[in-house]
Write a structure and sequence with these properties.
The protein is mainly alpha-helical. The protein has 16 helices and 8 strands. The longest helix has 17 residues.
Length: 355
């Protein structure tokens, strides 16, 4: 991607060898950009530039900035220059498959490959050409790609491109393969929290005296803490809508759960359980049915104490035989938040809740 303040953001899909998995990843990536509110001015696919990559490679050969190499693909690094000085006849009379390599320079002593045997450009060469074609000014790259910058600059210089490019590097996350933004979103971590956490990690990394390619530790506990804060900072109505409801009181109820839960997915399970159809509690079947009937027929009570007193008097139930089935009827589980705390937020839905 290319980005800089007041300049358009360009998203590039590096689709050298497409697959169904890549198509799925592209859709997920664009969906994530939308969730984070990141807009871009242009989306293009690297494969659309393959014809230009071939032309640029041919130009570099003509300018003697690159050479054809017939060596095995597993040739030792750095390349020893075996094919660098082959004559035109030696090249034309050799039917073997070949790659195209850059000639070494003062900035890099490696004759790195720019075109592979299958006629596809290498990632470094393709990016260098694409950034030039797109007129990129600032490039956002992972820290692990830092060493590629000198090679990309060498390619552009050899092609006569003189515009300077600025590289912005972001640290690689530890265990990155196991940490996927889409998975975090599915777990109920909010886009705002993920963005704030990643920015905090990046700021910490940038402020360190020495920036290395060592991955930055991803601490899920810290993300959980940030996610709870983000949930608490949402308006009650907005939180309710994110959980699939549209009631301010449901949002307030959801916020109560942030004392014990970290994500909207966990909270939604609790809220949905409250409104799910209830079956008589095993071991308290009779008591459950008695309380259910009383609640459905009960008058409206403003406060919980009056509501509880009415049910206790009418049912004649006491202790566990009263409180356990009542809690399950109202909350969909055997324990959790105090009924006196939740009742003001659910009292208008009692008939729906205990149905």
């Amino acid at each position: 991607m290319q980005s800089k303040k007041n300049l358009p953001l360009i998203v590039r899909m590096e689709d050298g060898k497409r697959s169904e998995a890549m198509d799925t990843n592209e859709d997920a990536f664009l969906e994530i950009l939308a969730l984070f509110g990141i807009s871009y001015s242009q989306l293009y696919y690297q494969s659309n530039n393959f014809k230009y990559h071939l032309q640029f490679a041919s130009t570099l050969l003509d300018r003697k900035k690159a050479f054809i190499c017939f060596c095995p693909e597993n040739k030792a690094f750095p390349y020893d220059g075996t094919c660098e000085h082959l004559s035109s006849d030696e090249i034309l009379n050799n039917p073997s498959p070949f790659v195209i390599r850059m000639k070494p320079s003062s900035s890099t002593n490696d004759s790195f490959t720019i075109m592979q045997r299958d006629k596809y450009p290498t990632p470094v060469f393709a990016r260098a050409c694409d950034d030039m074609l797109q007129g990129a000014s600032t490039l956002i790259r992972e820290e692990s790609c830092r060493e590629d910058a000198s090679k990309e600059n060498l390619v552009r210089e050899a092609l006569g491109y003189e515009e300077a490019l600025t590289y912005l590097y972001v640290p690689k996350l530890e265990n990155a393969d196991a940490i996927r933004v889409k998975a975090l979103l599915d777990e109920g971590f909010m886009p705002e929290a993920i963005a704030q956490y990643l920015l905090a990690l990046g700021t910490q990394w940038l402020s360190s005296e020495e920036k290395t390619n060592t991955p930055v530790a991803f601490e899920k506990e810290a993300l959980c803490h940030m996610n709870r804060k983000c949930i608490q900072n949402l308006s009650a109505m907005e939180l309710s809508k994110r959980l699939g409801y549209a009631c301010e009181n449901i949002g307030k109820l959801a916020k109560l759960y942030t004392k014990i839960l970290n994500t909207t997915a966990e909270i939604k399970v609790k809220i949905d359980a409250i409104f799910a159809k209830k079956e008589p509690l095993k071991g308290f079947e009779t008591e459950s049915k008695t309380l259910q009937k009383l609640i459905l027929e009960a008058p409206y009570f403003e406060n919980y104490d009056a509501f509880e007193a009415y049910l206790a008097e009418k049912s004649g139930l006491k202790a566990e035989a009263f409180f356990t089935p009542l809690y399950v009827l109202l909350m969909g589980e055997k324990s959790g938040l105090a009924l006196a705390q939740t009742y003001p937020l659910i009292k208008n839905y009692l008939k729906e809740i205990v149905r």
